[in-house]
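User: Okay, second chain of the day. Same drill as before: sequence in, structure tokens out.
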Amino acid sequence: MINAVELKTAKLPKLVTELPGPKAKEIVDQDAKYISPSYTRPYPLVIKRAKGAMIEDVDGNIFLDFNAGVAVCSTGHSHPQIVEAIKKQVEDFIHICAADYYYPQLPALAEKLSRLAPGDHEKRVHFGNSGAEAVEGAVKLAMYTTRRPKLIAFFGAFHGRTMGALSLTASKARQRFGFGAQALDVTHIPYANCYRCPYNLTPETCGAMESKGPHCARVIEDILFKTTVPADECAAIVLEVIQGEGGYIVPPASFLQTIREIADRNGVLVIADEVQSGMGRTGKMFASGHFDFTPDILTSAKGIASGLPLSATIARADVMNWHPGAHASTFGGNPVAIAASLATIELLEDHLIENAAKMGNYLLEGFRALMNKHAIIGDVRGKGLMIGIELVKDRVTKEPHPEALARFETECFKRGLVTLGCGVSTIRLSPPLVIDQSQCDFALKTIDEALSAAVR
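Assistant: Same drill. Structure tokens below.
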């Protein structure tokens, strides 16, 4: 059995049993009996403890984590500075409701987030517990401020599973099946997926390379505002700066900038969901920074507190001007989570954002080289350590290959690498921002082997 010291110093996987091991099998069986069947688990990884980028399972096997709890453990698992910040706060006090009482940690973190979020304008922050909560708050705020009932969102989007956020989510049919009519008045349109343009255009022919902007953005003003979503009834355009669950789709900068221009012309707010793409993951604090893009409202969660439940809705101060009691949360802004977030930001600004950019470039170069060997790779894309590898049956037809994705995930697991899919057939790589080059090299080698195994 692995001891704590050995796990702490481990850099690469070490497998000592068959997978899953005997203890893991017992827990998987118990889980099936008592846990909601709505959870999705691609393979039987049963975690005992984790440090940095390494995970130990209940049978003593060590894995390299290239998922980070779905982009949550930004500073790695149980970073000592995060643990120390949590311990110190727990010793002082664990909870007091931010909606009813004051404590210094709350404005301290809000000030930092206001400084870090895109835009030079004054901002205000509302704290919640999850990405879905942050999105719910952003939508409520937009509708309150504009007094308009309609929203525009995008196919492929994932904004959460609560009923309001679910109205915006349009990633997979199973996420919405069985829940009736959507709670919000949302119109979905295609996102700027240049690899799979729904209009059969290219960046050169769609306008993405010109000042007028891409067709997939212009359709809002050219069609929607003239037909089903009158501009004076539209509260906000809601988007992920880089789509996450939809397949790690990176848009051209002109797409976001054109949406900003359209919104400004029509008095519509722009909500940027940076729940997955924020907090250093892309090599900048927020992905918006790659595109010279400034939303009116921004949502943040996942990596914001290195694994503790916390989210933030960050908005222009003149927009977040609702009356007392309009929106609040009992646990939102919990002081222990805020302490973890303050320590997280310190680590991100110190070196981890820089490391995300460096290791991300290294991995992207390596994965693009693998395209020469594996015809199953249709596209490699990403920013920093938010990387997608799309698998296809044929590069000409671009037919997705979800069966290969499922086999690939299992093959990686068998070799000690933790990965997850997204979209229809895209490998999602979102490792902790602490990874080093030796771990990147192991991931490249393992993914090479797993791709070969997946198509046999």
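The chain has 13 helices and 15 strands.

User: Thanks, on to the next one.
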